[in-house]
Amino acid sequence: MKLTIYWVTKDAESIQRIRERFNLTPDTTVNGETPAEIREEDIPLLRETEKRGFIQIRNK
Q: Which residues are registered as beta bridge partners of 55?
Protein backbone atom coordinates (compact mmCIF):
# COMPACT_ATOMS: atom_id res chain seq x y z
CA MET A 1 0.00 0.00 0.00
CA LYS A 2 1.41 3.38 -0.98
CA LEU A 3 1.36 5.94 1.81
CA THR A 4 3.15 9.10 2.76
CA ILE A 5 4.70 9.28 6.22
CA TYR A 6 4.99 12.69 7.90
CA TRP A 7 7.55 12.76 10.70
CA VAL A 8 6.06 14.37 13.81
CA THR A 9 9.01 13.40 16.00
CA LYS A 10 12.39 15.02 15.52
CA ASP A 11 14.22 12.30 17.48
CA ALA A 12 16.77 10.87 15.01
CA GLU A 13 17.06 7.52 16.83
CA SER A 14 13.29 6.95 16.76
CA ILE A 15 13.11 7.87 13.08
CA GLN A 16 15.95 5.47 12.27
CA ARG A 17 14.28 2.60 14.16
CA ILE A 18 10.94 3.20 12.39
CA ARG A 19 12.72 3.34 9.01
CA GLU A 20 14.44 0.01 9.71
CA ARG A 21 11.28 -1.70 10.96
CA PHE A 22 9.13 -0.70 7.99
CA ASN A 23 11.94 -0.73 5.40
CA LEU A 24 11.51 2.96 4.53
CA THR A 25 13.90 4.87 2.31
CA PRO A 26 16.19 7.46 3.92
CA ASP A 27 14.65 10.16 1.69
CA THR A 28 12.64 12.95 3.29
CA THR A 29 11.12 15.88 1.41
CA VAL A 30 11.49 19.50 2.50
CA ASN A 31 7.97 19.12 3.94
CA GLY A 32 9.14 16.34 6.29
CA GLU A 33 7.44 13.55 4.35
CA THR A 34 8.67 10.16 3.20
CA PRO A 35 6.91 8.19 0.45
CA ALA A 36 6.48 4.56 1.52
CA GLU A 37 5.31 1.20 0.26
CA ILE A 38 3.94 -0.62 3.33
CA ARG A 39 2.98 -4.29 3.43
CA GLU A 40 -0.62 -5.03 4.42
CA GLU A 41 0.47 -7.04 7.48
CA ASP A 42 2.46 -4.03 8.79
CA ILE A 43 -0.44 -1.54 8.62
CA PRO A 44 -1.76 -2.21 12.19
CA LEU A 45 1.70 -1.64 13.68
CA LEU A 46 2.16 1.51 11.60
CA ARG A 47 -1.21 2.81 12.88
CA GLU A 48 -0.02 2.14 16.46
CA THR A 49 3.13 4.14 15.72
CA GLU A 50 0.88 6.96 14.55
CA LYS A 51 -1.24 6.78 17.72
CA ARG A 52 1.91 7.13 19.83
CA GLY A 53 2.68 10.43 18.12
CA PHE A 54 5.81 9.57 16.11
CA ILE A 55 4.28 9.94 12.64
CA GLN A 56 1.21 10.97 10.69
CA ILE A 57 -0.03 8.78 7.86
CA ARG A 58 -1.07 10.76 4.81
CA ASN A 59 -2.82 9.24 1.81
CA LYS A 60 -1.59 11.06 -1.26
A: 7
- Confidence bin at 60 (pLDDT 50/70/90): confident
For CA atoms 3, 17, 52, 28, give the dihedral sign: negative
Integer Cα distance of 6 and 42 in angstroms: 17
Q: How far apart are CA 35 and CA 12, in angstroms?
A: 18
Cα 60 to Cα 2: distance, rounded to the nearest angstrom: 8
Name residue 50's amino acid.
Answer: E
For the chain, how many residues are written?
A: 60
pLDDT tens sequence across 39-58: 999 999 999 999 999 999 99
